[in-house]
Amino acid sequence: MTATVPSKPSGEDRSPFRHELYPYRGEAQFLSGTLGFIHEALEGGEAVVVAVPSDKSSLLRGELSDEPAVTFVDTTTAGPNPGRLVAAWTAWMKERGEGDRPVRGIGETAWHEARSAAHLSELRYNEWLLNRAFARSSTWSMLCPYDTADEDQDALRSLSICHPLIRRDGRQAPNEDYLAGEEYAFEAQADPCDPCQELSYTQGDLAAIRSKVSQCASDAGVPQDRLPKLAVAVTEIATNSIRHGGGGGTLRTWTQDATFLCEFRDSGYISDVMAGRSRPDAHQLGGRGLWLAHQFCDLVEIRSTRDQGTTVRLHMDVPR
Question: For residue 226, which of 317, 302, 312 has the smallest C-alpha distance?
Answer without folding.
Answer: 317
